[in-house]
Automatic annotation (TrEMBL):
NCBIfam families in UniProt: HAD-SF-IA-v1, PhnX-like
Organism: Streptomyces coffeae
Coiled-coil region(s): none
Cited InterPro entries: HAD-like_hydrolase_sf, HAD-like_sf, HAD-SF_hydro_IA, HAD_sf, PhnX-like
Protein name, as recorded: Phosphonatase-like hydrolase
A Pfam family assignment: Hydrolase
Higher taxonomy: Bacteria, Bacillati, Actinomycetota, Actinomycetes, Kitasatosporales
Amino acid sequence: MTENHNTPAIDLAVLDMAGTTVADGGLVEQAFAAAAERLGVTPGSPEHTRQLDYVRATMGESKISVFRHLFGDEGRAQQANTAFEEAYHDLVDGGRCTALPGAAEAIETLRKAGTKVVLTTGFSRATQDRILDALGWRELADLTLCPADAGRGRPYPDMVLTALLRTGTDDVRSVAVCGDTSYDMLTGRRAGASVVAGVLTGAHGREQLTGAGATHVLPSIAGLLELLAVRAA
């Protein structure tokens, strides 16, 4: 891509997984419900509703951080996180994990054009690898990162900056971040990315995405190709 002073070329695309490139289909909420029930939270109770509202509001955040907030002490948080991962893995193994339409093709097109692609998640490495294996995506992107790989998860900028460092990208302005949650948008803005694109295929809607700093809101990940092509031109 040709770079000019005002609009540096996008050399790195940091893409979220669940809700952005991977269909969620309510799997996070189902796995959370299983985890909460194991810790004695009755489905349908006011406490369950309160916790589920928090899970929805913080979609994209590191899951262990969410459970630390909900259950207080570290022991219960770890217990909940383990139960969540077991339930989510069962759903993935049961064939419930699918790619969003056009996602793999978008990643392949970006890489062919010379843009490095990094897939990020709020899940643990074990869960991220489970998803990658289920989709056959181990070799799809240049790099995959989870919160433990970077130090902190969203909404901190660590994963985006780790992606920049590990791919040898020279300038934060040459980074595009794309995700479906407000935390994805905050992460991109805090990292200094020049493109912070929200997609409407996941947890949060247009108002939440723009409120968190999205520079663009797209129908899906497929729209990122057109956005970057127009920007480069």
